Amino acid sequence: MVTHSQSERAGSAPSPASPPDGVVERSRPGLGERLAGFAERSWRPFVLLAAIVVAWWAVTAAELVEPYLVPSPGDTFDAIASRPEYFWEHTWTTGYETLLGFVIAAAIGVFAAVVMVNSPTVEKTLYPLLLFAQVIPKIAIAPLFVVWLGFGLGPKIVVAVLMAFFPVVISMVTGLKSVDPEMLQLSATMGAKRGQTFWKIRFPASLPHLFSGLKVAATMAVTGAVVGEFVGADAGLGFVILQANGNLDTPVLFAGLLIMSLLGVLLFVLVEWLEYLVLPWHASRRGEGTTTNL
Amino acid sequence: MPPGSTAERVAPMERPLTDPGHAVELDEVAVRFRTKRKDVTALQDVTLRVRPGEFVAIVGPSGCGKSTLLKLASGLLAPSSGTARLLGEEVTAPRPDVGYVFQKAALLEWRSARKNILLQAEMRRMPARQARERADELIAMTGLTGFEDAYPHELSGGMQQRVALCRALLHRPPVLLMDEPFGALDALTREQMNVELRRIWQETGTTVLLVTHSIAEAVYLADRVVMMTARPGTVAGVIEIGLPADRDYGTTMAEPEFARATRHIRDHLGAAVAAD
């Protein structure tokens, strides 16, 4: 049954106001209510973050370490505030590389997984190659891409794709294979074509797995883009960090690191939000029902 | 059989012009599985005929190949030797003219109850309106009214199994194959589902082949009960159930014929197990 009436607990006869089947429809909460709910659920990490910033500030204010080694939070934020266009431009470059790398990695990953699941021969042939591509240290082959593709966007995107696509393939293959075999037999007795079985059963069933892969891939894509910038670039946060490193300009270096991390978090949250929209039915989204004293 | 009900029963299916004679026909079938280390004979020398409109239950110990029989009849599995025929036609590939219900409801968790039922129609490309009307009819018949828009995780085991039953009946299959459909339900729900299945079978007139562990369930529901022995699975005997067509649950349980039939089956299966 959908829900059990709260009045069962009381043991008394249902009050005249309660509907006969014990189900009360509630209206959807408004925006203000939902924002308040969000704040209530997620204030903890922000408090922790604030505590870390305070600790950072305390260390620098007490001059426990030399300021040229660890700049104060104030100096770091000043570094950004004094040159907003500079940071915006380079963040944009890295963000663009990351996003493009992520999207391409997701597309290639999903495609490769679908092909491999549909043909055991292809899977046996391709899998070792994929593994090989994954275990090559990206930092080691990044210079090669610069030689091949120049100093533009090319090598950064290639490194980002290489780093991000492996978790997508692995999770998607697992997802496509996780379908209940009885569901597939049922589909066969429905006279379903391969395509129908894929789009109506296999693909939707694989999405929860795919999204875990995409979340890992989102964080990898940022690393990939920055690694690409390290080996040869004239723009991007990797370039900013390398330059600041050369000038011993730690506030800018810290600022670059901070923005880079935020970029990764932003992409991760974006994927989570997308998951929330696409998979409202998934078990991880369902909370246990709570009792109410209304 | 009366011509009116026959047309109703197989409406969307193309029925061969010649009379098929039997709805399901297994002719000396054997099934051998090959694993890495050994070959296992799951079924041996099984012959079984089910008349159109008949309700046949198959009982037997675990691992006697009961489920395998249903897979042979529907073409999900090919026999190692012998032939399987469905509606007079040799089965060589998965057959779309059956309805299948498993022990697990096997519902798609991203679809509501109604949408799960309509999956059958979508796969078969049935006209949308006709499918919707048929779904409504089945929802009412199985007592799912009020739960059409609930998702599988919001439904109890019994309700989920009703959805699976509706999905299996949507295209008015001439043959309904049920593989321990109520095995995972609690005793009370199970009795209730038995009563409803009996009623639904009488209303639809479809041929039913039911695999079950429960002797009482088999006797209450079926016209004939097939008893099987394990390793390798063979037919140990078939018993006709002489109960009236109208079977009230409580009354039927108290009938001498019910006691006779269950006792006979229990003795038979017990003897088979002892001889093992």
Give a nutshell description of this structure.
Chain A has 294 residues and is mainly alpha-helical. Chain A has helices spanning 7-10, 31-61, 73-82, 84-118, 120-135, 138-149, 153-177, 181-189, 194-230, 237-246, 250-278.
By CATH, the topology of the largest domain in chain B is: Rossmann fold
Compute the number of strand runs of chain A. Answer: 0
CATH-defined superfamily of the largest domain in chain B: P-loop containing nucleotide triphosphate hydrolases
Number of domains of chain A: 2
Report the top-level CATH class of the largest domain in chain B. Answer: Alpha Beta
Assign the CATH superfamily of the largest domain in chain A: MetI-like
Overall helicity of chain B: 25-40%
Strand % of chain A is: under 5%
Tags for this entry?
A: mainly alpha; MetI-like fold; 2 domains; disordered N terminus; B: 276 residues; alpha/beta; Rossmann fold; six-stranded mixed β-sheet; 23% strand
Could you characterize what this model shows?
The complex is a heterodimer of chains A (294) and B (276). Chain A is an all-alpha fold and 294 residues long. Chain A has two domains: 32-64; 76-281, Orthogonal Bundle (MetI-like fold). Helix content of chain A is 74%, strand content 0%. Chain A has eleven helices and no strands. The longest helix of chain A has 37 residues, at 194-230. The two termini of chain A are 21 Å apart. Mean pLDDT of chain B is 83; it is low at 1-18. The termini of chain B are far apart. In chain B, strands 6-7-8-3-9-10 form a six-stranded mixed β-sheet, with helices on both faces. In chain B, strands 2-1-4-5 form a four-stranded antiparallel β-sheet. In chain B, helix 3 (113-124) crosses helix 4 and helix 3 runs parallel beside helix 5 (157-169). The radius of gyration of chain B is 19 Å and the shape is globular. Chain B is of the alpha/beta class and 276 residues long. Chain A binds chain B through residues 1-2, 21, 180, 182-183, 185-192, 196, 200-201, 204-205, 279, 281-283, 286, and chain B through 71, 74, 76, 94-96, 98-100, 102, 104, 106, 108-110, 119-120, 122-124, 146-147, 150-151, 153-156, 159.
